[in-house]
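#onboarding

Welcome to the new folks! Below is a worked example of what a typical request in this channel looks like: someone posts a single protein sequence, and someone else replies with the predicted structure as tokens. Don't worry about understanding the tokens yet, we'll cover that in week two.

Example request:
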Amino acid sequence: MSLGRILFTLCAFVCASAFLRAAHLVGGEMSYECLGNGLYSVQVVIYRDCNSTGAAFDDSIAVSAYRNLPQSGYPIYADLFLKHGAVTQLPSTLNNPCLQSPPNLCTEFTVYSGTMSLPPANGGYLLAHQRCCRNNTVNNVPNSGVWGNTFTTTIPSNDACNSSPHFTDHPPVVMCQNDQLNFDHSAVDQDGDSLYYRLCNAFHGGNQQAPTPYPLVPPPYTTIPYTAGLNAAYPIPSSPPISIDPQTGLLTGQPTVQGQYLFTVCVEEYDQGALLSTVRRDFQINVANCQGNVVSRVTSQIQLSDPVLCNGRTVSFEHSSTGGQSFLWEFNDPANPNDTSTQSSPTFTFSDTGVYTVYLIVNPNTPCADTSFERFELRYPLEPEIQISGQLCLTDQNIQLTANGNFSSLASYEWTVNGQNWTGQQIGLSPLTGIGPHTVRLRVEDFNCIAEDSTEFTLRTKPGIFGDLAPLTGCAPLEILMDDSSSSEPWMRHRWDFGDGQFSDFPTPLHSYQQAGVFTVTHSVWSDTACIDSVFNRYVQRINVLPAPLAGLWVDTQRVSIYAPQFVLRDSSSSDAVQWGTNMGDGTEYMGELYWAHAYADTGTYTVSHWVLAANGCSDTVLRTLRVDAEFRVFIPNAFRPNDDGKNEVFRPYGADWRKMELTITDRWGGVVFRTTDPLAGWNGRRMNQGQLLPEGIYAYRVLVWGRRGHFAERMGTVMLLR
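Example response:
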């Protein structure tokens, strides 16, 4: 017995005592998806009664793959251990809007998934998982608490990558006594094969002494018996009987007796008449005495999230109804023929403002329909806007305020400016002191609607220029921040003439003189609104820009190999340079050299800085980027020993100057046991780096390497796995 089987068996015995506290399973199913190359993704869905005191979901479960050879006794091929995912509670919803399910029903599920390698084989495979036990309260199974579950599916003989069907929806948790059931229990098949549905028997597995059997019991499996008068095709007392459409998977019928019932649905997958697989779902369904609970309640206008008072003709309606499955709103807009909606919370635009009575019918055209109504008063938004006009100059004031908006002739207006109050749609302000800011507030009331607006304005002053531009001498390019010494405000306009053919409209511009020379600067400031005036100042020959040398550096090439890491350089600066020097980027400097060679000690990218200095003190610098490349190399070892001693644990290729790598390992039958495109990842001797170590021996490799400069290499050979 393998170590995995021993550990799982020990866990099964330890967990059994906890499981005996109570039963908890209510069903499950198994399906798979072909991933190609003999790999299958296996999924097991387990349903559990979350109100029970039984054991929680197992942390991991075992799935066994048997060779589907009845004449040979179904020999075991492989085991797979799966971890479960998130735990989700199923909703206890009903398909009858007049009824409400009992509040004490709770079913949750989780999905166990993993990948299994199953090469094509004669007869195919039968996959199985077993777990005990079911609830003690199942009415159609005698002594139900002693019966467990076996979930199975099959992979076809010599399979060419078939995927089993899987159900599109979870089964219903509850059905109502004497209420018609209509549930879509259909499945989908990604291969497009034909599907056939039927009610079938559930399989037993495990027992109270060994609830998590391991090794699993091989097929054939025992079917779970039904109480007298019931069977797999008629599992629930019902009239008309519970049945499933063989073509569509629609589950119908009308249960007549309350209780808990086991039922099983099989979906069979066919291709040109040949049965490929069967997915079997068994489940515990609750037949309850459901209560009616339908109340219509329109949310009133003042209780809406947006009360919509004086907000125009559009309303987003809300409701706090209970038990509603469908809705019919009637807005009673006589000028709008399409004045109804079946949305739960509709938005409707009325043809005009006014007063409307709005009705809501919950579950219309059913015996449990209910109606409510509310009155809505709609007015257009006032949308006040303050208009300021007149002279805004501090020395010449004439200010008028006007309230613009959607008002009637009955509207009232209240103004507040600097603590003083006025009334009327248009007012004139008495002279104010100070530039500001001055705050204006307006309050308008019309049709019981109230709206407010506020703004600020500033009294303006006339422009003026003060101060001087000090003489300045510097090397080209010379960058100068011009000082705005004017009394200008943000609304005033500026114009700088730098004397070199360039201009700026910014108050404090940053200007760069590119050419040598002596320049005159002119600064103009003016205002063409409020306080209209203009001033300017001219600074004659204040800027002296000295000529700067031009640094130049010639290099024979931009890129070399580490095997010949030398560059030849020559100064090519302008003739007015009197001093020069070069920093090679690796700590080496050359002073006063006109022609020289330099070799780098290592690979890398280097920035070379060459500077020159003229007799007038002006300088210039030029930069060059040089690259020393590594050589493209590939090295592959021929053996490794993954024995956890920290030495030679993985097999991988090594080299330099790589851009991309692909490594594939195969066994002696050609089966892929490892593949990666990560240059730093290695093979640890396990299949896809998971599970147990593979047998000692020789394995084939294929390595593809792409270099950074267009190189490519392919290496094929063998590596010895030592243990």
